[in-house]
Design goal:
heterodimer, A: 209 residues, Rossmann fold, three-stranded antiparallel beta sheet, B: mainly alpha, ABC transporter involved in vitamin B12 uptake, BtuC
């Protein structure tokens, strides 16, 4: 199962500053789109808005034709879209790798993905004891578990930022094989090459597709 | 030693010992929540909120302690929306504390009740524990354990990171609300039952020690309860043996235990962690379900 994602004149603000300015973007079901652009151009905010983690001041985002307004609808949206966050939370409280992997909805799949991503033996480790690259791989494995559990799309926000070159290639190859809709924020060439389409954001606007 | 045994045979001392044991099983978990939410100032805030509730109760001719607890519950629920603000819950506790004390003093002034008298209603002592206090403590302990064991996976994610919890299907808002109400009522009731000084020894100190030892929420809770039981039992016994007030002795013993946890090396913490378990890989996922390999 995969789902088309439609952003229609999505606008987000931080106070008076417009971070995302009337963005329109159609992503076909199963399509992989890379979102690039300078720091602060609104890429992360756009994805967070689609997950209900940042309020929109205008516009809508639909996944599989469904918009989200109520708490129940946002909960469904977050089940529908697996997420790899940019700001990888080291957490202010201890959480084990296994606990994070389990939270994706398909513990076995997440653990198997963790094994493929070379973080399979870290299950009992608290997340704050991992390196940045290990943490990123664990969040990615969790997202793959969520996809196995039924998520129809995956948003990944700079999923290779903390990885070495081999790791970047490995993750790009892995994401390219995913049979769900993928929107990935990335500055990594291996990742953008692996996508069907590249969109660029600048100053809150989607400029080039 | 005979004096110690004589003291233990007194019904009031027996009730105190039972009360401390019940408190040691439940309140350290509240302490873990408090540290997880970063609201160590909650005791001061709830003390003043309870005072405001008592003042309103006295003014309205209602049961002042019930009003105090209701005020704590309302305050706990009221600060939940502030968790997402930049100043977060710690800021909310500061606001609540100053706001509540000012409002309480104003209400007391209007009602003509002496502030010290109202405070005395709030100030309990473990040696004055009544049977009804034991029942209240027992009920609190049950509620705290049910909250933790029923929702511990969700709580672990929520206390780790709210957004990760949201994206894992956790109803973060209602769970945070429940957590804050339980913490607020537990602290408000405990101040009445054990006295303000002991509340810290029963909640924060075991949780601080557990934070040093635990590698997950579950292991922290187990450590906190263990430290609470050891600290309370030892502290109360020492207080009886040296014939001194149990409050300060308990705090000093619990504080010493907590200090000792800072001295345990990292490697040794791993070895003694009750939540430690062998790494396990996932069971093989059937090829048809292995969706990341199309």
């Amino acid at each position: 199962m995969t789902a088309a994602i439609t952003f229609t004149t999505v606008t987000c603000r931080y106070g008076r500053r417009t971070a995302v300015d009337a963005v329109d973007l159609d992503v076909a079901a199963g399509e992989h789109v890379a979102l690039t652009g300078a720091n602060g151009s609104g890429k992360t905010t756009l994805l967070r808005a689609a997950l209900g983690l940042h309020p929109t001041t205008g516009g809508t985002v639909t996944v599989g034709g469904e918009s989200a307004r109520s708490g129940v609808e946002w909960a469904r949206r977050r089940r529908d879209v697996a997420w790899v966050p940019q700001r990888l939370a080291p957490g202010r409280f201890p959480l084990l790798v296994d606990e994070l992997l389990d939270s994706g909805g398909h513990p076995d799949a997440a653990r198997e993905a963790a094994g493929q991503l070379d973080v399979g033996g870290l299950g009992h480790r608290p997340l704050h004891t991992l390196s940045g690259g290990q943490l990123q791989r664990v969040f990615l494995a969790r997202a793959l578990g969520a996809v196995t559990a039924g998520a129809r799309a995956l948003f990944a926000d700079e999923p290779t930022a903390a990885l070495d070159f081999d790791g970047q290639e490995q993750v790009a190859t892995l994401l390219a094989k995913l049979p769900v809709t993928v929107i990935v924020v990335s500055h990594d060439r291996a990742m953008t090459r692996a996508c069907d389409r590249v969109a660029e954001m600048a100053a809150g606007k989607l400029r080039v597709i | 030693m005979d004096g110690f045994l004589d003291l233990l045979s007194l019904p009031a001392v027996q009730r105190s010992a039972i009360g401390l044991l019940i408190a040691a099983v439940g309140l350290p978990i509240v302490g873990v929540f408090i540290i997880g939410l970063d609201i160590i100032a909650v005791r001061f805030a709830m003390m003043h909120v309870a005072l405001l509730g008592i003042a309103v109760g006295l003014l309205a001719g209602l049961d002042p302690m019930l009003c105090g607890l209701a005020a704590c519950a309302l305050a706990g629920a009221g600060v939940a929306p502030l968790a997402r603000r930049p100043t977060g819950l710690p800021g909310a506790m500061g606001l609540l504390m100053t706001f509540a004390i000012a409002a309480a003093l104003l209400v007391l002034s209007v009602s003509g009740v002496n502030a010290t008298g109202a405070f005395e209603l709030l100030w309990g002592s473990i040696l004055a524990t009544r049977e009804i206090d034991l029942i209240v403590l027992g009920a609190l302990t049950v509620v705290v354990h049910v909250l933790f064991w029923r929702w511990r996976r969700q709580l672990a994610l929520l206390l780790f990171d709210r957004e990760v919890a949201l994206c894992s299907g956790v109803a973060a808002g209602p769970l945070l609300l429940a957590l804050l109400v339980v913490v607020a009522v537990a602290i408000g009731a405990s101040i009445r039952l054990t006295g303000a000084l002991l509340v810290d020894a029963l909640t924060i100190l075991p949780a601080l020690g557990a934070r040093n030892l635990g590698r997950s929420l579950r292991s922290m809770v187990l450590w906190a309860v263990a430290l609470g039981v050891v600290g309370n039992t030892a502290g109360f016994a020492v207080a009886l043996l040296i014939d001194q007030p149990p409050g300060p002795v308990l705090v000093l013993v619990a504080g010493t235990l907590t200090l000792l946890t800072y001295l345990i090396p990292e490697g040794a913490r791993d070895a003694i962690d009750p939540g430690r378990r062998a790494d396990r890989g996932g069971d093989p996922v059937p090829a048809g379900q292995r969706v990341w390999q199309r």
